[in-house]
């Protein structure tokens, strides 16, 4: 069940989460080597199952390199700009339940600002 499009002064999506799915061909470490696609797929399915997909709600997006490879796999939630590092489906469940549905940041999964490529 999709909601109606948001009002003109509201953001089109309440949250967008971008998953780095980048794969480096030169052997450098990358999110694709650490289960990023599985995290993306699980998140997308959880949002669908919760009836939270669509305008005014949540959009789950694929991204190329987000340049935070050392923390990978990574995802970022907008419009807040909250960066997460995740390991498994339980981490994704926490991000979905707490942040994307409940509006509360998952502190234990925050990617430190100092982590880059």
- Count of DSSP H/I helices: 2
| Number of structural units classed as domains | 1
Distance between the termini: 39 Å
Q: Kindly report the CATH topology.
A: Glutaredoxin
Specify Rg, calculated over alpha carbons: 14 Å
Order of helices and strands: EHEEEH
Shape: globular
Number of strands: 4
At CATH level 2, the architecture is 3-Layer(aba) Sandwich
- What is the CATH class designation? Alpha Beta
Major sheet strand order: 2-1-3-4
Averaged pLDDT: 90
Coarse structural class = alpha+beta
Strand content: 15-25%
| Spans where pLDDT lies below 50 across 5 or more residues | none
Main sheet specs: 4 strands, mixed
Approximate helicity band = 10-25%
In short:
The chain is 23% helix and 18% strand.
Comma- or semicolon-separated keywords:
single chain, 117 residues, Glutaredoxin, 2 helices
Structure in words:
With 117 residues, this protein is an alpha+beta fold. It has one domain (15-109): Glutaredoxin (3-Layer(aba) Sandwich), CATH 3.40.30. 23% of the residues lie in helices and 18% in strands. It contains 2 helices and 4 strands. Strands 2-1-3-4 form a 4-stranded mixed sheet, covered by helices on one side. The longest helix has 14 residues, at 36-49. The radius of gyration is 14 Å and the shape is globular. The model has no long low-confidence stretch (mean pLDDT 90).
